[in-house]
Each structure stands twice: as structure tokens, then as C-alpha cells.
Write a structure and sequence with these properties.
The structure is a homodimer of 392-residue chains.
Chain A (H helix, E strand, L loop, with lengths): L8 H18 L3 E4 L2 H8 L4 E7 L5 E6 L8 E3 L6 H7 L7 E4 L6 H8 L6 E4 L1 H9 L3 H18 L2 H4 L6 H14 L18 E5 L36 E8 L6 E2 L2 E4 L5 H20 L6 H14 L17 E3 L6 E5 L12 E4 L3 E3 L3 E3 L3 E5 L4 E3 L8 E2 L1
Parallel strand pairs in A: 1-5, 3-4, 5-6, 10-18
Antiparallel strand pairs in A: 1-2, 2-3, 7-8, 8-9, 8-10, 11-12, 11-13, 13-16, 14-15, 16-17
Chain lengths: 392, 392
């Protein structure tokens, strides 16, 4: 497994070409990209500015900062309003139709950018990029595999992060430190405005059942009302489960993996529920092929929870999440989503996390999460680490 | 100094009343708030949903999640489209004009919300909230003072986070751990889409001069091209300065403070530049009163840098920031901004960071940053910690 900081030119060209196919299918002339996430996707860098990709030809990087960025595609601007004249000066023409990231930029920013092209038809670039980014390129898959490998190495140190009497916050802090030393970039990128979080989540005992406002599988009360998610300062005690769901952001691409530790032994029903989650993963691994429907996976998972008599505590108790998995990549919540109303079919090159979880009152959260790559013939697990409950 | 997790009811009522005055001045009937930051400001909680504040009367909390939130102002919704009928059912009427957070929500979200009020005049709530949040309430000031106190306690541990041969990333990781153990909520809230960062920044040696795409005073190359800011893995060596600019997010309100450490002794010009920054703070403290112009502070700071012969390395070298300070609060980059085109005058209740910094080639960053509260007669420093260069 190789790890390089920058994508090779041919991998970027593959991305440009695929996006140009989508632009062509939409019948649009160009897109103008401004989000950090999609600028990174299209250039392998983050800069303050825009990427202009016409339906044919090379992209232009309109760069505001850093002021000394060196790249053959770069043209420097002071402000967005400089773009039209630079397009004309470089014989690229003014597009008759252009897509902007309407699901990512603010209303005010959108008004400003659409005014650059007063006679153009304006469309939404976000769904196209989200759709394209579902299918990873070869270099992106390498990044995810590398993240998964380090993710597992860090989880092997969780045991050393524990000592009797420690709180969930302190344990999480120790894990965060191991993550950073292993190369975690720290920042956790997500799509949408409702995904506030910090490095990931550690849930101990009944805090796993505390509902959260955010779009995560499980909640947790958090340490402060201004960030109601995750660990809440609970002291770890005999008979509690400890669910570790920290990010695998060791490259720009994040794997997602959850494991459960126990303080001493847990009641028998905890092992039972945990095994149901593992069985769900086994079924996923044995049955999934390109073409498998995301809704079908959600539905049979729900059915298996019901057959096990665990419907009431599946994906939460006081509040139950309505999905069992999601795409991962530059953002932790990419497409596809494994939920009942998904119309997506799995395709080779997709990478997704599957996270069937249970919350048992008086014990805590059970179940595992792995990240999988869809191959030509099935799926490959890229987060390989002990799956049974690990006693501390 | 008291610290309570939730604002008292009278402090929230003060905020509602002030915002209602601003709504009234705008001649608008109501605002509908959806950002986590402004929901927190208006309720002392974060939930998934909306705060509807009419120009008269109490707010309504339209809550989607958590599903078990208990509050006298709460009405539960499944989706935004439920709001108009609930307004009618509760005899609140449909507003003839309503403000939405146009500088914070996405274009698509804005279209969806404005469609709830098809005949209403729609305006922008963001500038009103930004303007109001400049002036802190008594409880908010307590939060900032508490954050400042813990901020200083954590900085007193930086020395213990160092050992010879350590890298900037490892030292930052050690500081992050101390921050978390001292109660840092981790997440770092900021306004705008161009403020990606993680917990704060540690800049060692020449990495301090690396330009960044983001809107911070100084840059740094970062550990990965997908997050080009801050520490880059440099090993700390004799003669390097180490600038620590980590967040003070020990409540929902963040103080901002920068201190400089040195590996052994630095060349004489480093102490000279550092003293110029301290002199700028002395002038700020002695001259600032309510009514002082933010632009004036920027201008005399720039002049002092020129008088000291340090213009070329003030606020960066390869790229120079065009501000020397900024408001702080729930977000690290609130109003006012200390820059030449600011029209703001300082007023009692404002809290702002002042950060005149220099970057010397071959040495690193120098200068300090403090957070100040504007009082009725002057300013009060709320980040009290040794200001001279601290030798490691």
C-alpha cells in the first residue's frame, strides 16, 4: 500500500474527465467550484478561490490565496468579480450555462457568483460532485486503505489509553493523542450544516442513549450544551460498554470504524446484541455484489434486529437513526446512504461504512462499524481489527 | 468568577429584547434562525430546528431533534414546511416580512425556507445577529473570563509539553491533551467557509512564514495538503521561536491568546520585534476607551511597525494579513475587525483579540495576542499570562 501526499496527474485528469461527462449529460457549459472539499477533490490542494471546469479542456484554478501558489492552471484574482474578464482574456469565453455549489455555499455567496454570469443559466453543481465522488478513483482508494490501516493501529492502542477510574473524556483525549501522533489531520470534514463533532465519539454506558441534534447514528450528551454529542465525563465502571467511534482521518480520506470495549464483564444480553451486529456484517459480506440495493441492506438489517427481538434498541433508544451506513471519503457522510428510501445500487469503487448498533439500558452501546470497498465481485473490508467485545 | 453551563433566563430575555429592537429598526416582523451558533446564542442550547423570534412576544423553538427536548418554548416539527401551520395554530400569524440567515445557510436551504412565506418580504438576519453579538451580555462576559482563566492555566503547562527533539506536531498534540483535560470542548467555531482549522495553531521556525489559504493572521504549511494551516512536523531546534496560538474554548465562548516560546536563546532582533508587539499592546491598553475607532488602532499599529523598521515582516512575510485583531465570542472571528476599512467604534461589552505579530526569517514568529473586554472607561485584559518570550 503506497501513500503519497499528492494525487498523480492522471488521477486528477480522470476526475476532470468524469465530471466533464456529467456536465455534458446535464447539457451545461461549465462549473465554478468554491468549496474546500471540492477544490481539494479537483486539484489535490486547498486554496482560497475557485476551480472553473469547462465541459471541454483543462480547468482554471482562480486563486486568491496563497499568493505564491505555483501551478500551470493557476490564474490569480483579487475577487470573484475578476473571473469573467480573465475568462475572456484567456479565450475561454463566457459560459451560457454554469453550475454553482448551491447546497454548499451561502445564499449571499451564490447571489454574488451568479451575478458574474448575468445571462447564463445557473444550475446546482453539488449533486453532480456528490454523485461522482461516490465512486473513488484508484488513488482515492489507496488513501482510504492507508487510513484504514492506521485506524486499526490506533485502535490497538485503546487498551493502553485506559486505566481504572478514568472518565470517558480522558480516555477519548488519550485516543485523540494517539491519533494525532499517528498522523491524524485533526479536522473532520462533513457535508451539511448539522454535523458538528470533534475527532469522533466515545460513548460509555447510558450516555450512549442520550439523543443528539446531529445526524450521527448515535448521540451522547457531550461535555457542554453548545456541543451536545459524544462523551460527557462519565467515569468508566464495571459492567459498562465503551463504544469507540473515532475518525480515520490519516489522509484527506476518512475511514469509519467502531469497536466496543468493556469494563470487566458485561451482562449476557450485551454479547448477544453485539453478535447480532457481527452477524449483520457477515451477511453483508457474503451477499453484497455490485448492483446490491442500499435500501435492501437497510431493510434486511432492520428485519434481523426485529428477529433478534432488538428493534426497540436498534440505532438508539430514546431516538433511533433511520440509516445503517453511509459513504465515506473526503467527507465522513458521503453518498450512498443505507436507508429505506435510497435508490442507489452499490457499484465498484464505492466505499461505505456499515454500522448496525444497539443501545442497552444500564450497559451502553454494542455493535461494530467497518468501512468496505465495493469491488468487481463483492466487498472488501478495509478496517481490519478485532470485532468481538474487548475486555479492559 | 462564576461558571454555569446554561445562561440564566434574564440573560436570554435581554438577548431576545435587543434583537427585537433591531428587528423593529429594520421594520421587519420576525426572524427565523437556523444556524447552530445563533440557535445557541438565542436559547443556550443547540438543537436541530429553528428559532422563530417575532418582533414582539416570546420566541418559538421549532425542534426537529433531539426528539425529547423539554422546554416551554418548544414546538416539534418533522420538517421546515410544518412551521406556517404551527404559527397559525398558535395564533402567531404569518409574518409579512421575515429575516433568514442569508450569510450562513446554503442557497438551497434559503430557497426552501423563503418558500414557507411566499408573500413575505425576505431579508438577511446574519448582519443583525453579528452586530448584536459584538456586544456581550453579562453572562457572556463571565463565560469569556472563565475561558481566559483556563486558557492561561493551560499555557502554563506548555513548558511541560516540551522535550528536546520534539516536533511541533507532537508538542501541539501535548497541548491539545492539556486543553481537553482542562475542559476544552474541542470544536472550534468560526464564521464563514474559509476558516478550516483544528484546535488552534503552533508555528515553529520558518513554518510561520508559509502562506495559508485561510483567513488567519499567520499561516503555516500544515501536516497535509488538504489542511494547509499550522504545524508541519518541524523538529524544534535551538534558535527557533515557537508561537502557540491555541483556542480558549473552555466554554461556548472562545478567548484568543498567543504566546512565544524559544528553543534556547534567539538572535537579538527576535526580542526587539517581540517588544514592539508588546509596546503596541501597551499603547492599546493606555489609549483605548469606548469610542476608539478600530481603523485607528490598525493604522497606528501599522505605523509603529514601520517606525520600528519591521513593515516587511509585520503580520507575515510571503503573505501579510490585513487586520491586527478581531472580535471573539461563540465564534473566533466575530465583529469588530481591526482593519483599515472598519467603520466600527469600540463599545462597552465588546470583546476582541489584538494580535500584532512579526515573522523573522530563520527564527519564526514573534509577538503576542491578548483578548480584551471594553469597559465603561477603557479595556480590561482577560488573558493574563507571561508576555515575554519564554525560554524552553
Amino acid at each position: 500500500m503506497s501513500y503519497t501526499k499528492y494525487p498523480p496527474a492522471n488521477d486528477l485528469k480522470l476526475r476532470w474527465g468524469r465530471l466533464q461527462e456529467l456536465l455534458s449529460e446535464e447539457g451545461t457549459d461549465a462549473c465554478l467550484i468554491s468549496s474546500s472539499v471540492n477544490i481539494y477533490y479537483l486539484t489535490g490542494m486547498v486554496f482560497n478561490g475557485f476551480v472553473y471546469l469547462p465541459v471541454n479542456g483543462n480547468p482554471v484554478y482562480f486563486v486568491r490565496r496563497p499568493e505564491d501558489l505555483r501551478h500551470p492552471c493557476a490564474l490569480f484574482i483579487r475577487k470573484a468579480e475578476d473571473i469573467p474578464s480573465l475568462l475572456l482574456k484567456n479565450n475561454l469565453g463566457i459560459p451560457g450555462s454554469v453550475l454553482l455549489e448551491a447546497d454548499q455555499m451561502t445564499y449571499s455567496e451564490h447571489l454574488r457568483l451568479q451575478a458574474l454570469f448575468p445571462v447564463a443559466k445557473i444550475g446546482n453543481a453539488t449533486p453532480l460532485l456528490r454523485k461522482q465522488r461516490m465512486i473513488k478513483t484508484p488513488w482515492e482508494i489507496e488513501q482510504l486503505k492507508y487510513s484504514g490501516k492506521i485506524h486499526a493501529e490506533v485502535y490497538s492502542k485503546v487498551r493502553d489509553c485506559y486505566h481504572p477510574g478514568i472518565s470517558d473524556v480522558e480516555l477519548q483525549t488519550n485516543v485523540e493523542r494517539e491519533m494525532r501522533l499517528a498522523g491524524s489531520i485533526g479536522l473532520f470534514r462533513s457535508f451539511g450544516s448539522n454535523m458538528d463533532i470533534y475527532m469522533g465519539s466515545v460513548l460509555a454506558g447510558d450516555n450512549a442513549g442520550a439523543p443528539s441534534p446531529f445526524d450521527y447514528a448515535l448521540g451522547g450528551a457531550g461535555v457542554h450544551p453548545s456541543l451536545p454529542i459524544g462523551s460527557n465525563g462519565s467515569v468508566l465502571k464495571e459492567g459498562m460498554s465503551l463504544m469507540v467511534d473515532m475518525a480515520g482521518n490519516y489522509t484527506a480520506y476518512t475511514t469509519d470504524m467502531t469497536r466496543v470495549f468493556s469494563i470487566g464483564k458485561l451482562p449476557e444480553k450485551a454479547y448477544y446484541a453485539h453478535q447480532v451486529s457481527i452477524d449483520m456484517h457477515h451477511r453483508l459480506i457474503s451477499e453484497t455484489v455490485p448492483g446490491t440495493s442500499c435500501a435492501d441492506i437497510y431493510n434486511y438489517t432492520l428485519q434481523m434486529a426485529a428477529n433478534a427481538g432488538l428493534s426497540g434498541c436498534f440505532m438508539g433508544v430514546r431516538q433511533q437513526a433511520k440509516f445503517v451506513g453511509h459513504g465515506v471519503g473526503i467527507e465522513i457522510n458521503e453518498l450512498p446512504v443505507l436507508m429505506s428510501r435510497s435508490e442507489d445500487l452499490l457499484q465498484p469503487g464505492m466505499t461505505f461504512a456499515f454500522e448496525p448498533k444497539f443501545v442497552l439500558s444500564g450497559i451502553g452501546a454494542l455493535g461494530i462499524e467497518n468501512t468496505y470497498l465495493v469491488t468487481d465481485t463483492g466487498i472488501e473490508k478495509i478496517t481490519n481489527f478485532e470485532e468481538n467485545i474487548i475486555e479492559l
